[in-house]
Fold this protein.
Amino acid sequence: MKTSHVNRNIRTDLAIEARELLMGEVRQEIPGVQLDTEDVDGIHITRVEITTREAEKRMGKKQGKYITLEAPGLRQKNTELQEKVARHFTKELLSIINIDAKASVLVIGLGNWNVTPDALGPRVVKDLLVTRHILELQPETLGEGFRPVSALAPGVLGITGVETSEIIQGLVEKVKPDLLIAIDALAARNLSRLHTTIQIADTGITPGSGVGNKRLGISRETIGIPVIAVGVPTVVDAVTIADDLISHLLAALMQEAGESSPVYKVVRSIAEGDKRAVMAEVLEPYGGRLMVTPKEIDTLVEDMARLLAGAINAALHPAIASEEAGKYLH
Amino acid sequence: MKTSHVNRNIRTDLAIEARELLMGEVRQEIPGVQLDTEDVDGIHITRVEITTREAEKRMGKKQGKYITLEAPGLRQKNTELQEKVARHFTKELLSIINIDAKASVLVIGLGNWNVTPDALGPRVVKDLLVTRHILELQPETLGEGFRPVSALAPGVLGITGVETSEIIQGLVEKVKPDLLIAIDALAARNLSRLHTTIQIADTGITPGSGVGNKRLGISRETIGIPVIAVGVPTVVDAVTIADDLISHLLAALMQEAGESSPVYKVVRSIAEGDKRAVMAEVLEPYGGRLMVTPKEIDTLVEDMARLLAGAINAALHPAIASEEAGKYLH
Amino acid sequence: MKTSHVNRNIRTDLAIEARELLMGEVRQEIPGVQLDTEDVDGIHITRVEITTREAEKRMGKKQGKYITLEAPGLRQKNTELQEKVARHFTKELLSIINIDAKASVLVIGLGNWNVTPDALGPRVVKDLLVTRHILELQPETLGEGFRPVSALAPGVLGITGVETSEIIQGLVEKVKPDLLIAIDALAARNLSRLHTTIQIADTGITPGSGVGNKRLGISRETIGIPVIAVGVPTVVDAVTIADDLISHLLAALMQEAGESSPVYKVVRSIAEGDKRAVMAEVLEPYGGRLMVTPKEIDTLVEDMARLLAGAINAALHPAIASEEAGKYLH
Amino acid sequence: MKTSHVNRNIRTDLAIEARELLMGEVRQEIPGVQLDTEDVDGIHITRVEITTREAEKRMGKKQGKYITLEAPGLRQKNTELQEKVARHFTKELLSIINIDAKASVLVIGLGNWNVTPDALGPRVVKDLLVTRHILELQPETLGEGFRPVSALAPGVLGITGVETSEIIQGLVEKVKPDLLIAIDALAARNLSRLHTTIQIADTGITPGSGVGNKRLGISRETIGIPVIAVGVPTVVDAVTIADDLISHLLAALMQEAGESSPVYKVVRSIAEGDKRAVMAEVLEPYGGRLMVTPKEIDTLVEDMARLLAGAINAALHPAIASEEAGKYLH
């Protein structure tokens, strides 16, 4: 799980949220950011493309394509909707991947399997149909329609003592895949996006600039091959919620007071100064290490991991009809 | 994990927090609530006794004894401190238990093993030294200094379809123990108490009155034998944090404005109305099911479970010197 | 996992194996044992009924009905076959259950979740659709076609210190179900039956008479309601394999020597005496606690648990079409 | 888990068993194989050194040093003995490692975490004190007496699609450690060695030559740095047990018959031919994939993993007194 900052306090890994935040400030379309949306089968699909250097800077997100599938219904157990989301995810992933049928793919499940909200990547890898060794040693057992897929969940720095990007570089040099897919749990800004949103990006993964976050990126620049990042928000940072709460309250206070009221100014000036102090006081002592998650996090992560694994299997192996994606899970 | 309300929004299962909240409101000692504190080995021990019906009502906690051990150092990995806390916990537990050496004990690990912050009870049970069957079938293999201990982690209503208290009643009727110890994860009000505080109570467990919380209690009244409750706070409800944040901010605003200022009244009146609306807006859609926990929750629960299991083993079996409590864990 | 003896050394929990063994000795049909077989969809279904007291004694199996589904193809991952087996299992289970649509059912997952081959029962319970509490508290959320189902995995004597049958008795007295289904991992005699065979019996579970096996039975006699036992062999006792190996070798030796040969007699007499000594020597020091299992035991247990849970859900809740059994798993 | 053959049917990864087998055949000391034994604290320590090319061939084990610690008492839960074994293991490991205090070490946990008897390596890695990243980023938090240690459990070919030796090579090229320690579950010939024996070898790991076992080795030749292999036998192959049983029986038969008896010759000639057929018949259909393990395998693997992790931590970090090895486990 990595985090990147759009503005102070608010951490989001989702390009759509970065855009929303920026739009909220500037209240007009952002040059260099293209947007396309589609609503189908109860799923809201957003395709954002960041095309200029300047938009990259303002958004705090690398130039490239970001596709988001949002299905609020996933919050409830709904196997029919899960299957629909899986099918559309497969389609969108294929649209962004763009490799030929024989090209080999390495899938990396990022994150810490000991920490439930961070275990999404390793859990997806567990259910992938890994074929590289079979195609090399006993290709006849598989038949047509499978490409070489390998997979690893390398763990996190605290578990291995090695930067994840270094482990991946070493592996890529040996396996020489044509494409890397990196799966990771994300931080969102908005609680409604937890476990209901999937982001696909062709930009790879750029770690945040926060303290203790000096990990190198996982992208074409560092790895040498195209990197597709797939992520699902599983937590909202407690600081984000706190900031949201206080901002909403201040906005409500100021609106009711009216701009001309003396109260308005007082609230505004006081607020700016006190906000931080109050947040520090309340969120101390666990500070930056606090997260907000739904209580049923374990089930939600498990369900999403199965959905993603099935849909990635279907995208990578033409032999697996999307409808039967679930069949090849262990 | 159960929750009980002291006042609106604020949920805490800790008697010391209920007292703090009430003291904050009334700003004087509460009649019918006795208090005794001790600081030793870096541990702050508080012994609260609620002795009157009226204090029970005001505190929202049953009449009886509540002992709390607080060791903020537990937030960091510190095996030496863990051992000290275990020793003092053993001592306090023995002071409240008050049964003879041959009396039999049933330990119940409450909570849902699939939900990390609620898995404390089942995890403790896993490491208990269970002896009832050995003392019945092959007593000679154990030697002196062991009492009959049995244990069960019955799961939660959603897993079994049966009220936990009913499962326990059925079991107690068969096993006929002299004492029941129930271990449960708690909700705290204060983040600093997460995974650093242990509460022992001789009142059993009274479920909150909230919606969906109609479970019967587990206490001498329902079970027919003394019930000791042991609990550790593992989550703070997101609503509690939100309430805290907003209250702190409003207090700061009002203080700076000064009571005579017109701002003061405006803020106050507006605040009362808006607080709830803002909280509902931000915490929606997961509403009441959101929790705030440290990111390293998995490790913190594991560590605390080992500490408690070792210390309960030492308390129940005189043969196990407290110093060697860890030795009998699996 | 319980074990019962047909003859010395050979332990099997399967009625069909008990019958095979007895047939091998007496070489004729056994009075009081009725047999009916069917081959369908690659599944061999055997329905054995033991109808007399004498047959019960000779077979070492209680009077009653035993249905066995054998599908050797389950040894390989084959989701289509799994679905067929699930459908036929549902049908056979319904034929033996014979309760009305509103009758309530308690499902018990026997065995030790910490020991993979013994974890089948608890694993099945994990994926059951438990409805008793919903039908009591919020029946409107479920709609038609669901009966009250509750479930518990009580653990084993070594974990709880309490006889499993006592825990179940206590629970039955509180829940008052109309039927109990007990799921357990079994020991087979024949390796080919591991993870490929499911036995349904209307006799409940009678524990073996071996040392340390004094657990009371779980049957209509001890529980007071009908008990259906569902079991899958997951291990062969090492002693069984050893006995098999030696018996096969001796048979081969004797056959080649010819009955008239002096070798025949010598081998026979020597063999009878040495067999036990050799087995004791080789299987010491883990003796009776050794098991033989396929290396992929973890996956095989997981797959079978899902199959059974889905099929039991479909059998108990008319609303769940057998074809969609998998959909209601968590 | 790898396996190597000393003679047909008998698979053992232990040099002491290879030696025993060879001694059993040739009935004299083997040139080029040096032996040294020691009995201390209830532990039998054997130091075997294979010094010639010819001995390597006859033993089926690479030239180098093999140290074995055997403590039959480990079969029972015995924390005192565990601590003694840990201390002696630390000492022996240090004697074979021979690197300076600042040298960096990479520990690899081989095997499949989904298969209990093969999960030893990954389980040990989980409890290691990994320091490489701390010494690089925040050395001041550790103090003196820690060397840079990194660790990875790379999984097995069927999980990743990549040869484990390739993953390790890639990692070594990035991390550039001075020494590699590889931990693996082993196959023994003798049941009494399961979970009671630890082997340390300075030869690295040479995979068996069996079918499906074409994995490259992990040794100084393939990795470029010294490789210490640490292993514990957790299974005996079912074929080994079968072979043992039959051989013992035939030996007993022949001995009682007497060499001059006509029975002797018949048994011998018949036996040679039938042995294989009988084994194939009985062990079919799971054939080579069957293993024999104690029923409590899960607990035994867990206990041994803790012992090894604690002892390796103590060996690698001078700051960790061997006596306190357990303290630094998570």
